[in-house]
Protein backbone atom coordinates (compact mmCIF):
# COMPACT_ATOMS: atom_id res chain seq x y z
CA UNK A 1 0.00 0.00 0.00
CA UNK A 2 2.79 2.38 0.92
CA UNK A 3 4.63 1.33 -2.21
CA UNK A 4 1.60 2.01 -4.36
CA UNK A 5 1.15 5.42 -2.79
CA UNK A 6 4.81 6.25 -3.32
CA UNK A 7 4.65 5.29 -6.97
CA UNK A 8 1.43 7.18 -7.60
CA UNK A 9 2.90 10.22 -5.97
CA UNK A 10 5.72 10.28 -8.49
CA UNK A 11 3.77 9.66 -11.66
CA UNK A 12 2.82 12.72 -13.67
CA UNK A 13 0.20 12.78 -16.37
CA UNK A 14 0.52 15.61 -18.90
CA UNK A 15 -2.54 17.79 -19.09
CA UNK A 16 -3.80 18.07 -22.66
CA UNK A 17 -6.56 20.56 -22.08
CA UNK A 18 -4.29 23.52 -21.34
CA UNK A 19 -4.08 24.67 -24.98
CA UNK A 20 -7.81 24.23 -25.36
CA UNK A 21 -8.50 26.29 -22.26
CA UNK A 22 -6.22 29.04 -23.43
CA UNK A 23 -8.01 29.48 -26.77
CA UNK A 24 -11.32 29.54 -24.99
CA UNK A 25 -10.15 32.09 -22.46
CA UNK A 26 -8.90 34.33 -25.26
CA UNK A 27 -12.30 34.22 -26.88
CA UNK A 28 -13.76 35.31 -23.59
CA UNK A 29 -11.15 37.89 -22.84
CA UNK A 30 -12.90 40.49 -25.01
CA UNK A 31 -15.83 40.80 -22.68
CA UNK A 32 -13.89 39.79 -19.57
CA UNK A 33 -10.88 42.07 -19.83
CA UNK A 34 -12.27 44.44 -17.20
CA UNK A 35 -14.01 42.75 -14.33
CA UNK A 36 -15.14 45.75 -12.38
CA UNK A 37 -16.35 43.86 -9.33
CA UNK A 38 -13.23 41.74 -9.03
CA UNK A 39 -10.57 42.59 -6.51
CA UNK A 40 -7.82 40.65 -8.28
CA UNK A 41 -7.95 41.02 -12.01
CA UNK A 42 -4.43 42.22 -12.67
CA UNK A 43 -3.15 39.00 -14.16
CA UNK A 44 0.60 38.63 -14.52
CA UNK A 45 2.22 38.25 -17.91
CA UNK A 46 4.42 35.23 -18.39
CA UNK A 47 7.50 37.37 -19.16
CA UNK A 48 7.12 39.22 -15.89
CA UNK A 49 6.68 35.98 -13.97
CA UNK A 50 9.80 34.54 -15.62
CA UNK A 51 11.84 37.60 -14.78
CA UNK A 52 10.75 37.69 -11.16
CA UNK A 53 11.22 33.95 -10.66
CA UNK A 54 14.75 34.19 -12.05
CA UNK A 55 15.48 37.15 -9.79
CA UNK A 56 14.42 35.14 -6.76
CA UNK A 57 16.48 32.12 -7.78
CA UNK A 58 19.52 34.27 -8.54
CA UNK A 59 19.41 35.94 -5.16
CA UNK A 60 19.47 32.60 -3.35
CA UNK A 61 22.84 32.54 -1.53
CA UNK A 62 23.98 29.10 -2.71
CA UNK A 63 23.23 29.73 -6.37
CA UNK A 64 25.70 31.02 -8.93
CA UNK A 65 23.64 33.75 -10.69
CA UNK A 66 25.36 33.23 -14.03
CA UNK A 67 24.04 29.67 -14.27
CA UNK A 68 20.39 30.61 -13.86
CA UNK A 69 18.27 30.38 -17.02
CA UNK A 70 14.49 29.87 -17.43
CA UNK A 71 14.93 26.11 -17.83
CA UNK A 72 17.24 25.06 -15.03
CA UNK A 73 16.47 22.25 -12.64
CA UNK A 74 17.24 23.30 -9.07
CA UNK A 75 18.97 20.10 -8.03
CA UNK A 76 20.41 18.78 -11.30
CA UNK A 77 21.69 22.05 -12.76
CA UNK A 78 22.26 24.34 -9.80
CA UNK A 79 23.67 21.77 -7.40
CA UNK A 80 21.15 22.43 -4.65
CA UNK A 81 19.67 19.79 -2.39
CA UNK A 82 16.03 19.06 -1.62
CA UNK A 83 15.87 21.36 1.41
CA UNK A 84 17.29 24.24 -0.65
CA UNK A 85 14.49 23.61 -3.13
CA UNK A 86 11.99 23.92 -0.29
CA UNK A 87 13.55 27.26 0.66
CA UNK A 88 13.41 28.55 -2.91
CA UNK A 89 9.76 27.58 -3.27
CA UNK A 90 9.00 29.40 -0.04
CA UNK A 91 10.84 32.47 -1.32
CA UNK A 92 8.75 32.30 -4.50
CA UNK A 93 5.59 32.10 -2.43
CA UNK A 94 6.57 35.27 -0.63
CA UNK A 95 7.56 37.03 -3.83
CA UNK A 96 4.19 36.35 -5.47
CA UNK A 97 2.08 36.48 -2.29
CA UNK A 98 0.92 32.92 -2.83
CA UNK A 99 -0.07 30.11 -0.56
CA UNK A 100 0.89 26.87 -2.29
CA UNK A 101 -0.41 23.65 -0.73
CA UNK A 102 2.40 21.48 0.63
CA UNK A 103 1.95 18.61 -1.80
CA UNK A 104 1.93 20.92 -4.82
CA UNK A 105 4.90 22.89 -3.57
CA UNK A 106 6.77 19.63 -3.23
CA UNK A 107 6.39 19.01 -6.98
CA UNK A 108 7.97 22.34 -7.96
CA UNK A 109 11.57 21.31 -8.56
CA UNK A 110 12.68 23.43 -11.50
CA UNK A 111 12.34 26.91 -12.98
CA UNK A 112 9.95 25.90 -15.81
CA UNK A 113 7.60 24.22 -13.34
CA UNK A 114 7.69 27.21 -11.02
CA UNK A 115 7.06 29.68 -13.85
CA UNK A 116 4.20 27.61 -15.22
CA UNK A 117 2.58 27.17 -11.83
CA UNK A 118 2.80 30.85 -10.94
CA UNK A 119 1.78 32.14 -14.38
CA UNK A 120 -1.34 29.94 -14.24
CA UNK A 121 -2.21 30.88 -10.68
CA UNK A 122 -5.14 33.31 -10.59
CA UNK A 123 -4.01 34.93 -7.33
CA UNK A 124 -0.34 35.48 -8.16
CA UNK A 125 0.44 39.13 -7.61
CA UNK B 1 18.70 -2.47 -2.72
CA UNK B 2 15.25 -3.82 -3.27
CA UNK B 3 12.44 -1.91 -4.82
CA UNK B 4 10.66 -1.60 -1.51
CA UNK B 5 13.78 0.00 -0.04
CA UNK B 6 13.77 2.67 -2.74
CA UNK B 7 10.06 3.30 -2.38
CA UNK B 8 10.31 3.62 1.39
CA UNK B 9 13.29 5.93 1.03
CA UNK B 10 11.39 8.15 -1.42
CA UNK B 11 8.43 8.34 0.94
CA UNK B 12 10.77 9.32 3.78
CA UNK B 13 12.41 12.02 1.69
CA UNK B 14 9.04 13.48 0.84
CA UNK B 15 8.00 13.47 4.49
CA UNK B 16 11.19 15.30 5.43
CA UNK B 17 10.72 17.91 2.70
CA UNK B 18 7.17 18.63 3.77
CA UNK B 19 8.14 18.70 7.42
CA UNK B 20 10.96 21.12 6.65
CA UNK B 21 8.60 23.30 4.67
CA UNK B 22 6.04 23.46 7.45
CA UNK B 23 8.67 24.04 10.10
CA UNK B 24 10.25 26.82 8.05
CA UNK B 25 6.90 28.55 7.63
CA UNK B 26 6.24 28.19 11.32
CA UNK B 27 9.64 29.69 12.08
CA UNK B 28 8.60 32.73 10.07
CA UNK B 29 5.36 32.88 12.05
CA UNK B 30 7.20 32.89 15.34
CA UNK B 31 9.81 35.41 14.28
CA UNK B 32 8.77 38.94 15.15
CA UNK B 33 11.24 40.54 12.75
CA UNK B 34 12.77 39.42 9.53
CA UNK B 35 16.34 39.56 10.85
CA UNK B 36 15.36 37.24 13.71
CA UNK B 37 13.89 34.80 11.21
CA UNK B 38 17.17 34.43 9.33
CA UNK B 39 18.97 33.17 12.41
CA UNK B 40 16.09 30.86 13.38
CA UNK B 41 15.85 29.45 9.86
CA UNK B 42 19.57 28.80 9.87
CA UNK B 43 19.26 26.97 13.20
CA UNK B 44 16.40 24.91 11.84
CA UNK B 45 18.43 23.97 8.80
CA UNK B 46 21.31 22.89 11.02
CA UNK B 47 18.99 20.59 12.95
CA UNK B 48 18.06 18.89 9.69
CA UNK B 49 21.63 18.82 8.40
CA UNK B 50 22.86 17.17 11.61
CA UNK B 51 21.03 13.96 10.63
CA UNK B 52 21.81 14.12 6.95
CA UNK B 53 23.86 10.95 6.84
CA UNK B 54 21.68 8.64 8.92
CA UNK B 55 21.28 5.41 6.95
CA UNK B 56 19.09 3.06 8.97
CA UNK B 57 15.49 3.20 7.74
CA UNK B 58 13.84 2.52 11.08
CA UNK B 59 15.98 5.13 12.80
CA UNK B 60 15.00 7.64 10.14
CA UNK B 61 11.31 6.82 10.57
CA UNK B 62 11.59 7.29 14.30
CA UNK B 63 13.45 10.59 13.92
CA UNK B 64 10.87 11.92 11.47
CA UNK B 65 8.07 10.95 13.83
CA UNK B 66 9.88 12.69 16.71
CA UNK B 67 10.44 15.80 14.64
CA UNK B 68 6.81 15.90 13.53
CA UNK B 69 5.72 15.59 17.15
CA UNK B 70 8.02 18.47 18.10
CA UNK B 71 6.69 20.54 15.24
CA UNK B 72 3.09 19.90 16.26
CA UNK B 73 3.95 20.80 19.82
CA UNK B 74 5.39 24.19 18.90
CA UNK B 75 2.99 25.22 16.18
CA UNK B 76 2.00 28.86 16.07
CA UNK B 77 -1.58 29.37 17.30
CA UNK B 78 -2.28 32.20 14.85
CA UNK B 79 -0.11 31.69 11.75
CA UNK B 80 0.11 34.11 8.87
CA UNK B 81 -2.26 33.15 6.07
CA UNK B 82 -2.27 34.86 2.70
CA UNK B 83 -5.47 36.99 2.67
CA UNK B 84 -7.36 35.16 -0.09
CA UNK B 85 -6.52 31.64 1.17
CA UNK B 86 -8.94 29.69 3.38
CA UNK B 87 -8.65 31.16 6.86
CA UNK B 88 -7.22 34.41 5.54
CA UNK B 89 -8.76 37.81 6.22
CA UNK B 90 -10.13 38.24 2.69
CA UNK B 91 -11.36 34.70 2.23
CA UNK B 92 -14.90 34.78 0.66
CA UNK B 93 -15.19 38.49 1.42
CA UNK B 94 -16.86 40.68 -1.19
CA UNK B 95 -14.70 43.12 -3.12
CA UNK B 96 -15.32 46.86 -2.69
CA UNK B 97 -18.06 48.27 -4.96
CA UNK B 98 -16.90 50.36 -7.91
CA UNK B 99 -16.45 54.12 -7.48
CA UNK B 100 -19.59 56.16 -8.09
CA UNK B 101 -21.92 53.79 -6.34
CA UNK B 102 -23.03 54.92 -2.92
CA UNK B 103 -25.37 53.54 -0.36
CA UNK B 104 -28.26 55.76 0.73
CA UNK B 105 -29.08 54.69 4.22
CA UNK B 106 -32.23 56.77 4.72
CA UNK B 107 -33.69 56.10 1.29
CA UNK B 108 -37.23 57.47 1.01
CA UNK B 109 -36.94 59.39 4.25
CA UNK B 110 -34.50 62.08 3.17
CA UNK B 111 -36.98 64.95 3.74
CA UNK B 112 -38.37 63.79 7.05
CA UNK B 113 -35.85 65.51 9.27
From TrEMBL, chain A:
CC per GO annotation: mitochondrion
Compartments in which it is found: Mitochondrion
One Pfam entry name: PP-binding
Domain of life: Eukaryota
Pathway it works in: Lipid metabolism; fatty acid biosynthesis
SMART domains noted in UniProt: PKS_PP
Residue ranges of domain Carrier in the record: 47-122
Keywords: Electron transport, Fatty acid biosynthesis, Fatty acid metabolism, Lipid biosynthesis, Lipid metabolism, Mitochondrion, Phosphopantetheine, Phosphoprotein, Transit peptide, Transport
Molecular function via GO: acyl binding; acyl carrier activity; phosphopantetheine binding
SUPFAM superfamilies: ACP-like
Subunit annotation: Complex I is composed of at least 49 different subunits.
HAMAP family (UniProt xref): Acyl_carrier
Function, in words: Carrier of the growing fatty acid chain in fatty acid biosynthesis. May be involved in the synthesis of short and medium chain fatty acids. Accessory and non-catalytic subunit of the mitochondrial membrane respiratory chain NADH dehydrogenase (Complex I), which functions in the transfer of electrons from NADH to the respiratory chain.
Family: Belongs to the acyl carrier protein (ACP) family.
Protein name: Acyl carrier protein
Species per Swiss-Prot/TrEMBL record: Protea cynaroides
TrEMBL record, chain B:
Name recorded for this polypeptide: NADH dehydrogenase [ubiquinone] 1 beta subcomplex subunit 9
Coiled coil: none
Main location class: mitochondrion
Entry annotated with the keyword Membrane: yes
GO cellular component, one term: mitochondrial inner membrane
GO BP, sorted A to Z: mitochondrial electron transport, NADH to ubiquinone
UniProt subunit comment: Mammalian complex I is composed of 45 different subunits.
UniProt subcellular location: Mitochondrion inner membrane
Membrane topology: Peripheral membrane protein
CDD domains tied to this protein: Complex1_LYR_NDUFB9_LYRM3
Pfam families, A to Z: Complex1_LYR (PF05347)
Domain (Complex 1 LYR protein): residue spans on this chain: 15-68
Keyword annotations from UniProtKB, A to Z: Acetylation, Electron transport, Membrane, Mitochondrion, Mitochondrion inner membrane, Phosphoprotein, Respiratory chain, Transport
UniProt keyword Mitochondrion, yes or no: yes
Entry similarity comment: Belongs to the complex I LYR family.
Amino acid sequence: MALRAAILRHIRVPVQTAALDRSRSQAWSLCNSVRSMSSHDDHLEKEEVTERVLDVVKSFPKVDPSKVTPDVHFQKDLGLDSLDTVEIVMALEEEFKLEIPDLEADKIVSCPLAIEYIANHPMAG
Amino acid sequence: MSFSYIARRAAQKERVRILYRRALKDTLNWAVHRHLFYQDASDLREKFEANRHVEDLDTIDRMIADAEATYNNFRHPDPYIVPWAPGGSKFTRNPTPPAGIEIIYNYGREDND
